[in-house]
Amino acid sequence: MAPRHQAPRGTRDLLPGDIERWQWAEARSRGVMERYGYREIRTPLFEDYELFARTSGDSSDVVQKEMYRFKDLGDRDLALRPENTAGVCRAYLEHGLASKGRVHRLWYAGPMFRYGRPQKGRYRQFWQIGAEVIGTPAPGADVEMIALFVDIFDAWGITGLTVAVNSVGTPESRRAYGDALREWLAPVRDRLGADSQRRLETNPLRVLDTKVPDEIALLRGDGWPEPSGVARPSAWPPPMPHLIDVLDPESRAHFDAVRHGLETLGIAYEVDHGLVRGLDYYTRTAFEVHDRSLGAQSALGGGGRYDGLIQELGGPATPGVGFSIGLDRSLLVMEERGLGPTGGAVQVYVAAMDTTRDPAAVLARTLRRSYAVELDPEARGLSAQMKAADKSGARLLVLVGEEEWAKGGVVVRDLRGGEQEFVMKDRIEDTLRARLGATNHGAQG
Length: 445
What we know:
Subunit structure: Homodimer.
Largest sheet: 8 strands, mixed
Low-confidence stretches: none
CATH topology of the largest domain: BirA Bifunctional Protein, domain 2
Number of domains: 2
Number of strands: 16
GO biological process, one term: histidyl-tRNA aminoacylation
Catalytic activity: tRNA(His) + L-histidine + ATP = L-histidyl-tRNA(His) + AMP + diphosphate + H(+)
Enzyme class: ligase
Structural class: alpha+beta
Protein name: Histidine--tRNA ligase
């Protein structure tokens, strides 16, 4: 019989067996953030629709196609958050964080929502881990952000990634580049889809962010028709103009300083002239991390500088830079590479005889102060408990046998190797500590 209800399309349930890898990844990233001096912030899952429409840009796919927008019972125009930088900046202004220090380093983790086409590793409810530095225009902040970005992937064990960087300059340099891009694409304008033709008029840089394979080929210079009515230029198609070539001197110097900083830290990167990011608030530095083995949809995360965003929200001119990592796709990479936590959630299984169930329950509660412990609640026989211990994934079995308990101890068995020993009651925790380590289970990475 089919279930009456299922998770909505584009969402999924995270079940035991999967959630441990998520918790492990979140704990590892939290540790990296804290070592860089970042503090966690949590913002609402929904905000005023205008917050996202104003910051993301009217021509962006987020606003045009992907926003979960709704009216509440008070007729307020709201939206589920499609990203979190706007919400963090709103909170920064609302709570007057500028008065509590010039530079703020913040990080977040949680679900975002976009109405996209579900596919492997991409969902309509998806998780992001991100960070923001608000209050400094220095290129060193961009370098720190990219280094933090890379170090999180290193903490997860994901190697062989490509760091791509570009500069999207100022609004003025982007307008100049937009004119050059329109002129360059004029010979193939009719080969672009309706969306890209619209973007070419309203925001030409959005064309570079296309996901349509035929349009990606055109941007590479493939599939251009031969020119008609004129002599064929020596270089055809003409090379795509690069935004970096029309940058203002300050943006160019900023980008050069970022590149120098990355080289100083030994962070390998490539300049990607087509990297513009999908939201309109970015200025100057833009960056992404790619796993090229994933094919066309290879980006695992990205970010950039947004020096005009807080002013756009009604605050004073305040520079900022940030990134977000797609946790769903990153975890898919970890799973495919066999990365993540080792062992099961249960560390110790306590088994008892009929006559020792009470002391076994007391012992299990004591051990749970430090370890993940499972105790059979059904008063089953010892054979059934032993089978359950094997299935639990526990590393150790603590058997509270009648005879052993009367002698003042228990049997501790290694469920992987099979070795066992008699341990006195006052030595049980020392024995487990020697076998499993000294940290409590909630803090283990």
